[in-house]
Amino acid sequence: MTQVEHGRGSAVVVAIDGPAGAGKSTVARELARRLGYVLVDSGALYRGVALAARERGVSWDDGDALGAMTRQLKLAFVSEPDGTPRLQIDGRDRAGEIRSPEISMGASRVSIHPPVREALLGVQRQLGAAGGVVLEGRDIGTVVFPQAQAKIFLTASAAVRARRRVDELQARGEGVDYETTLADVEARDRQDSTRELAPLRPAEDSVLLDTSGLPLDEVVDKAQLIVQQRMEASLS
Known about the structure:
The protein is α/β, with parallel strands linked by helices. Helices cover 50% and strands 15% of the residues. The chain contains nine helices and eight strands. A hairpin with a 5-residue loop joins strand 3 and strand 4. Helix 1 crosses helix 9 (216-235) and helix 3 (63-72) packs parallel to helix 5. The radius of gyration is 17 Å and the shape is globular.
C-alpha cells in the first residue's frame, strides 16, 4: 500500500499548478516556509513512480502494471531543515535521482495512466485533508483539490523555463545544452496539455502569475498576498 509520511497543519489548502520550469517547487517551498505550512511536492510522487518503474523494468506505457507497482510502493517525504521535501522510496532517499531530464519525461508519461493517478490521488488528498498545506503539481487545483481555497497557476515563457532548467542541471555538474533543453520543455508542454486525462490547464478560479521577469522574492510576495486574500475571503 502506498504510504506517505508528513507533518500536519491547519488553515487553508494552497494549490500551485503550472508547467515544468515555471518555478513551482521553489515558490511552493518558500511560500510554505513563510506560512508555516506543510509542503507536498506532487510532481515528486510521479517522478518517483517513473524512477521505480525504470528500475523494476516496468514500461512507462503499461498503465495497469504501473498502477499495481505504485500501490506497492512506500513513498515518504522527509523534510530538510529549510522545509525542502525529500522523496524516499521504500526507505531510500531518491530526491537527487528524480530530477534528471529522463525521469522528468518519464513522470509526464506515467502520469497519463488512470491507475497511477488513482493510486496517488488518495495520497495527495490525505495529505491536504486537514489544511495548512501547499501542494504543487499540474492538476492540484483542477483534479486533486478543486475545493482548495487558494489556487495559483504559475507560468513563464518556454525560453525562460529552459534557461532555468539548464542552469539547475549545470549547477549539479550535468552536461546539458540550451537548445536540447528547450525542445524537451516544449515537448513536455505539448504532452501535458494535450493528454486526455487531467490535462495541464488553469482552474477557472485560479490566479495566473507569470514569473518570467520576476525575482523569487517578488513572486513569493505576490503568492503570499493571494493566499492572504483568499483566507480573508473564506472568513467573511
